[in-house]
Amino acid sequence: MALAALDLTDREHDDFVRDHPNGHLMQTTPWGREKEHTGWTWRTVAVGRKGAGPDGTDEIAGAALILFRRTPVLPMALAYCPRGFVVDWADGEAVDALLAEVTKVAKANRGVLLRIDPAVRIDNPDIRPALESRGFTRTDPGDDAAKTLAQPALRMVTDIGDLDQLHKDLSQGTRQSIRKGEKSGLVYESAGREGVDAFYELMRITGERDGFGIRSKDYFTTLVDVLSPTDDIVISLVKLDHGAAADKARAAVADTRGQLEKAQAKREKYPSDKADRQVSQLEEQIAAKEKSIAEFDAEHAKHPDGQYLAGSVFATCGTRGSYLYAASSNEHRNLRPNYLMVWRIMQDAAAKGVKTFDFGGIDASEGLEEFKRQWNPERREYAGEFTKRVRPLSGRLIDLVVKIYKRR
């Protein structure tokens, strides 16, 4: 039976994308609705065999979500399939049918340039021949891929299918950072829309500290609104409960005093420089902890409900999870709240059947990249960005416009 265009509901489209090995969050209809907020329009396309599925349902062979961005003056648009197409690239018939339908829809929406960056690994033997034989040209990332490509091709992805093994494989320092958060009065919260305000304030602080622009609060609110009905997004927050932190510090002081008494008794019986140093170190630890107790008590008076130190936006698509945004306060960074936050997100995601945790692109700041490396990620490279001129003459013009825009 020949392949034909299918008219899928949003749910049918999203179910196919979530279940497909080449599916991605950015190919779901909620992502299209989110991008409306930033000036894009969108359409979905699917091909398959009508009535060939179980119980006479349609058998879907491929699908794509297409975003359209109109040029400011000319009646033309860029057609962009973020992390698409969702298709088996070894199935030439499906690729041809899907490309034909995408091209038809692109032209109907004044698209003159089609850009895609499939969520397919670069070592897949089918992807590049399939695209180049059909007129696509791979974008040269140049010296600064972050400015050249719409989405980074290099990713850091951690397998969370076996958390017990992952925890064993983490470095001692990473495990200690997780435990430090748990023992220091940090509280993890998995929030929804009600967490946007706190997260956005942390995002504003992070942007000011690290010198980058941030999206509007409405952007994050919309992102939560469109993904929440499918349970595909969570706002995570970590706050410091100063009262609990003070109590934990008092318990630590009591424990250290017990160690000090034993060390002093041992020194009296067996005097030595080593014994002197041990007693001195324990006395310094007690003094430091008592100082922190006073500080926590004072802050508890100012922040009786706690103080948010870290936040993030994590989204899922089937068995794949993506760490979309992360932010942190300037205070109490020594408590490593981000470590506790990521570990708890991993635990919750794994419980829902998520198998991979995508930390995002490698071309990030040095500090953020080092943080990602603490989680034993696999360095994963996607096939890259490819472009095809739907209308050759006007396509050259908009291609130039896009290149100029990316350099801004």
TrEMBL record:
Organism lineage string: Bacteria, Bacillati, Actinomycetota, Actinomycetes, Micrococcales
The UniProt record lists the keyword Ribonucleoprotein: no
The transmembrane residues are: none
Return the protein name. Answer: Lipid II:glycine glycyltransferase
* GO terms, biological process: cell wall organization; peptidoglycan biosynthetic process; regulation of cell shape
Q: Which family does it belong to?
A: Belongs to the FemABX family.
- Taxonomically, the superkingdom here is Bacteria
Note the coiled coil stretches, chain numbering.
246-299
PROSITE patterns documented for this protein: FEMABX
GO molecular function per UniProt:
aminoacyltransferase activity
Q: Which UniProt keywords apply?
A: Acyltransferase, Cell shape, Cell wall biogenesis/degradation, Coiled coil, Peptidoglycan synthesis, Transferase
Q: Entry's Gene3D superfamilies?
A: 1.20.58.90, 3.40.630.30
